[in-house]
C-alpha cells in the first residue's frame, strides 16, 4: 500500500503535506503509511484515493494492497444491473445519426458504434485490413486510425491529427499510470505509428477538423467526447462516447446522403466485419 501510494502521489505531483491536508490527516501519519510503519484503515485508504482523484479501478487496487476487499464493481456492459446505461448508450448512438458516433473503452477499443460510423469505416478500410485490427475486445480505434494499412492514408491532415491524438493519449497515460492508454502509447511509439514532433502548426480554428479523403467524397469532421458524470462502476467510468459532427455544409450533405442510400451498401463485406467485431466487443464487456 505504501509503495502504491507513493507512486500515485508522485505521478500527481503532490507533496506529502498537501496530500495530508486534502485527506484531513497529518504528514507524519502519511509518511508512516508510505513507509509501511502504519497500516491505514479502510476509511483512510478511501480518503487518500479520493484526495488523489484516482480512477475507480485504482481505488480498488489501493484497497486490495491495504488488505481490504474492493469496493467498486466491474460489471459487463450487457450484464445484470447495466440495462439502463446500456439502453442510454444505444439511444445516444441512434439519435446521433446521420453523424458517426461510437463508444470506446479505456484501451480505445470500440465496444459500440452507430451505422454512420460503420459507413465511414467501410469506405476507408478494406474488410481484410479491418480484420487485422480486431480482437475479442473489439476493433482498436487508435490502431485503426494510426496504421497506414488502416485509416491513416485517408487522413489528409494526418500530422496535425496525429499530434492531437498523441497529446490526448499522453494525458490519459499521465492520469492513469500503467493503464491501457500508457500501454497503447508505448506500443504505437515503438512501431512509429505516431508522427514526430513538429513546431509548425496551421492557422488555429475553433476546433480541429479531421479531413478524410474517401475517393469520390471528402469529409471534414470534428469530435466531441462524453463520459458518465457520476459513475459508480469501473466499466462505466472508463467508457468514452465519441461523437463526430460535420465541420462544413458539404460534409453534412454527404453524411445525410449516405444515410438515404445506406440500404444499397448493406451487404458490404467491411460492414459485416464491423458488425461481427461489434458483437464480439459487446459480449466481452
**Main sheet properties:** 5 strands, antiparallel
| Helix share bin | 40-55%
Supply the helix-strand structural class: alpha+beta
Total domain modules: 2
Report strand %.
5-15%
Approximate shape: elongated
Number of helical regions: 14
Span from first to last CA?
Answer: 29 Å
What is the highest CATH level, the class of the largest domain?
Answer: Alpha Beta
**Using DSSP, what is the number of strands?**
5
CATH topology of the largest domain: Beta-Lactamase
Description:
This protein is of the alpha+beta class and 285 residues long. The chain folds into two domains: 64 residues, lambda repressor-like DNA-binding domains (434 Repressor (Amino-terminal Domain)), CATH 1.10.260; 202 residues, 2-Layer Sandwich (Beta-Lactamase), CATH 3.30.450. It contains 14 helices and five strands. The protein has a five-stranded antiparallel beta sheet with strand order 2-1-5-4-3, sandwiched between helices. A hairpin with a 2-residue loop joins strand 3 and strand 4. Helix 1 crosses helix 3, helix 7 crosses helix 14 and helix 10 packs antiparallel against helix 11. The longest helix is centred in the middle third of the chain and has 18 residues. The protein is elongated and about 70 Å long. It starts with a helix and ends with a helix.
Amino acid at each position: 500500500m505504501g509503495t502504491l501510494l507513493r507512486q500515485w502521489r508522485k505521478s500527481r505531483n503532490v507533496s506529502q503535506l498537501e496530500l495530508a491536508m486534502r485527506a484531513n490527516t497529518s504528514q507524519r501519519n502519511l509518511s508512516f503509511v508510505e513507509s509501511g510503519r502504519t497500516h491505514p484503515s479502510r476509511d483512510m485508504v478511501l480518503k487518500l484515493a479520493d484526495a488523489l482523484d484516482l480512477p475507480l479501478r485504482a481505488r480498488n487496487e489501493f484497497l486490495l494492497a491495504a488488505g481490504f476487499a474492493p469496493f467498486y464493481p466491474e460489471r459487463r456492459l450487457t450484464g445484470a444491473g447495466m440495462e439502463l446505461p446500456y439502453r442510454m448508450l444505444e439511444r445516444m448512438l441512434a439519435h446521433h445519426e446521420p453523424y458517426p458516433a461510437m463508444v470506446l473503452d479505456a484501451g480505445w477499443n470500440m465496444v459500440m458504434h452507430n451505422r454512420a460510423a460503420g459507413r465511414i469505416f467501410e469506405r476507408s478500410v478494406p474488410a481484410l485490413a479491418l480484420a487485422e485490427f480486431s480482437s475479442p475486445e473489439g476493433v482498436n480505434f487508435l490502431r485503426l486510425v494510426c496504421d497506414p494499412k488502416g485509416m491513416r492514408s485517408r487522413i489528409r491532415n494526418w500530422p496535425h491529427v496525429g499530434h492531437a491524438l498523441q497529446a490526448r493519449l499522453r494525458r490519459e497515460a499521465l492520469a492513469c499510470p500503467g493503464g491501457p492508454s500508457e500501454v497503447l502509447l508505448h506500443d504505437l511509439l515503438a512501431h512509429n505509428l505516431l508522427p514526430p514532433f513538429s513546431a509548425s502548426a496551421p492557422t488555429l480554428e475553433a476546433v480541429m477538423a479531421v479531413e478524410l479523403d474517401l475517393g469520390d467524397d471528402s469529409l471534414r469532421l470534428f469530435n466531441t467526447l462524453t463520459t458518465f458524470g457520476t459513475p459508480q462502476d469501473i466499466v462505466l467510468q472508463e467508457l468514452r462516447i465519441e461523437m463526430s459532427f460535420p465541420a462544413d455544409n458539404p460534409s453534412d450533405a454527404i453524411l445525410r446522403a449516405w444515410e438515404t442510400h445506406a440500404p444499397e451498401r448493406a451487404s458490404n463485406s467491411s460492414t459485416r466485419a464491423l458488425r461481427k467485431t461489434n458483437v464480439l466487443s459487446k459480449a466481452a464487456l
